[in-house]
Amino acid sequence: MSPFQGYRGDGVLAGVRSRKRVFASAAAEPVTAAAAPKRQKRREEPSLDALPDECLFEVLRRVRGARARCASACVSRRWLALLAGIRAASEAVLAPPAAPAVPDLNQEYIGGEDEEEAEADLMDHDGDARERTLEGRDATDARLTAAAIAGGLAAVSVLGSHPARGVTDAGVSALARGCPALRSLSLWDVPRVTDAGLAEIASECHGLERLDITGCPLITDKGLIAVAQGCPELKSLTIEGCSGVANEGLKAIGRSCAKLAAVNIKNCAHVDDQGVSGLVSFATASLAKVRFQGLSITDASLAVIGYYGKAITDLTLARLPAVGERGFWVMANAQGLQKLRCMTVASCPGLTDLALASVAKFSPSLKLVNLKKCSKVSDGCLKEFAESARVLENLQLEECNKVTLMGILAFLLNCSPKFKALSLAKCIGIKDICSAPAQLPVCKSLRSLTIKDCPGFTDASMAVVGMICPQLENVNLSGLAAVTDNGFLPLIKSSESGLVNVDLNGCENLTDAAVSALVKAHGGSLAHLSLEGCSKITDASLFAISESCSQLAELDLSNCMVSDYGVAVLAAAKQLKLRILSLSGCMKVTQKSVPFLGSMSSSLEGLNLQFNFIGNHNIASLEKQLWRCDILA
């Protein structure tokens, strides 16, 4: 009942009732065309948009706390735009002339009480600044501006863009004004950002250290020149797939950014020798990590790298069809790459046996070499390469089809005593040899061996591996379908130091006998075992694992023939402290395994139960029992 029921003191309510009757009678009459706009205007609800900026600011600035203030901005576009226009500690705040001074909003956000309640995933490694990532449909100007007005952001990544309301220069400008202390900015596939937005970043964020621009076709040399002039602290630059970027921007970066240490230029059609040469020659004192891929550069650029790359420690050259053997030879013989430690070359037809030997000879610090799809590298240079690279620790070859097992044996016979890791992937030349060489090497320093997806590698070759690598700890034999127990067992027996990581993914001819021998010989050291796709592996292997393995932390049984009984055996092994277990595609694992999985050790952090017959309702029950564990189903 209304508190004004029956009140007649001054006739106010009576007047209200009479007006209601008048309005009701008027509503019953037909509405004329002239009266329609008035009626529409009368029915409009009050809106904050009717207030001037000064009044709106005075109302909403009294909202306390960063979260509440950001929430207010998200429901009022004018408030959002107003905050976005305020530069941190630099512009006078909108207020009437007679009004007292208003505290800077950005400073309030940084020092407010709500700052302690910020989400942990927004904190960077320093613990005193925040990171924010906008991805896909969430990447809009409104969201970027709302993140910017809270201030304090040190790293921002925009990955993709909303198809209709994507990030534009307006959002990037708001970010620049709201976060002048920004240190890292990534713009991936943001096609509506232009040089104007990048120039705003350059004019406000003078401490920017890392810039990653990928798939931004409207950014050109003009934007990069602005960054060069406004961001002298820049240390890392990535430009990928930006068709508007050419040579002048790179030369400006090299000339003005004296601290530039890492550069990655990829798939930029208009970058050629002038841009690369200018960048490298100007940044000769600081540039340590260089990656050039998919560019129209020639031997001239490699000559500049070889002469001016005095600080380069990590060099990647990929898909450079115009670079020939001469370019690599000159790069090496310029003798400027004295500090080079890691070199990756992919899909470069100019890398020949002569070029590779020259690089090894004149790069005395070289520790890692990774060659992919280098079709002209063969056995001919491996012996000389091994003799020249005296501190080499790691050699990785992928799809280098002219390299054979004879070349690898020659390399191991002459390699550095510090050599630790060898990887051979998809090399069709790696196959069984008709007769073993007169002298087999014994590489006692080798700790890690990967022979992956080499279809010609069978039991005969595996037996040779066991003889020459007695100190292996990490073995990856993924995709060697031709290897059987007869080839794998000698490798197990010859390993003296104890295997730690073993990956047998796709070795479909290995049986329980091989796994049992492996865990009995190395159960005390084995920490990671992958048997994915080993279709002959059954519960017998799990019984051996449960009895012999005390250090095993990760076990992958995907697409094996294990059953509920094997799961029960694993669960009952008290000494087994698995962190990761995969039973994906194990069709014999059913709902009967649920009680056993639920009783597994509290150490379990990840469980993969995809593609089996456990059922969704049983998964829900497991999630309650294993609440610490991430379950993939």
From TrEMBL:
**Location of the F-box/LRR-repeat protein 15-like leucin rich repeat domain:** 131-406, 436-597
Record's compositionally biased regions (Low complexity)? 25-36
- What are the TM regions of this chain, as residue ranges? none
**InterPro entries for the chain:** F-box-like_dom_sf, F-box_LRR-repeat, FBXL15_LRR, Leu-rich_rpt_Cys-con_subtyp, LRR_dom_sf
Q: Organism's domain of life?
A: Eukaryota
- Write out the entry's keywords from A to Z: Ubl conjugation pathway
Pfam families for this protein: DUF7885
Region: Disordered; residue ranges are: 25-46
Q: What is this protein called?
A: F-box/LRR-repeat protein 15-like leucin rich repeat domain-containing protein
